[in-house]
User: What shape does this take?
Amino acid sequence: MKRKIASLAVLGAVLALGSQAALAAPDWSKVPKKEIHVFHPGVTPIEWATKKAEHSGSAGLKKGETCAGCHDEKGQLSLDFKRLASKDLEPKGAPKTMTFPVNVQAAYDASNLYVRLTFKAPAGAADPSDKDNDVKATMLIANDKVPQGEQVGCWATCHNDARTMPGADDKKTKYVKDGAYDLMQWRSAKGAKAADGTVTDKRAMEGGKAGVTAEGSKAGDTYTVTFTRKLAGGVALAEGKAVPFGIAIHADHASGRFHHISFGYKLGIGADGDVKATKL
Ligand code: HEC
Assistant: This one.
């Protein structure tokens, strides 16, 4: 009963944000947290990252190294944020806060995967044009057909001709040349439904096969977002498998490419990974 009372405050916050869903199944106090730093990537789509003249890391990528392998040093990002905020890589203007940590937890049972993200969303967006949502939290999971999916995380979906990129068509969404991603998104707008989508040759915000639900709450300045999805359906997950994923946070009404994103990491489901899902 003690636990129930303690969770009333959280429940209040959940209800205030308009979600009717019950608290998710896992006891998150028993699930380890992995801190992943997200950052504003400027205009560095996959075409940029794989072009030798722009990015010396492109040579390592060709040899099979991962983005995180070079840029994530024991959880700290090795990136030149001044350069990322400069006119060269960010012509429109960078957010005040270039990087912040997100705590990632995962758990699974016989039928579902549960993922919980906890973070403080910084103010000071460069492009606060999403009028409806203060914050959006997104997770992409790649299947094994995505080119370099295990190395690049979400970058395979990020192209120089996608909407909100400088000079790009406003209708063209993120896409991938081969393979597919499942997309899960929580939106803070009152009554907003979770997006259960995909990224294939285009992005679809619905029609996913993973039965995604999401709950979110804000307590003080901390957001807690919990996703539930089926293991089967969409990018098929199963015990013994590790899958590449990336996360993105749109903070302070940010839209389009003005999110803070992670490099690619591995989620291990009863398998090794950067984030290991706890078996329930
Ligand atoms: C072999 C190591 C290596 C790999 C793999 C690598 N990078 Fe880099 N990256 C670098 C180095 C070195 C620099 C700085 C010099 C330059 O830009 O060439 C850099 C620069 C960057 C920058 C610009 C900010 C800065 O610190 O200068 C971004 C953004 C970036 N990398 C993203 C990526 C992404 C995304 C991937 C994967 C798709 C990736 N990198 C893979 C080594 C790497």
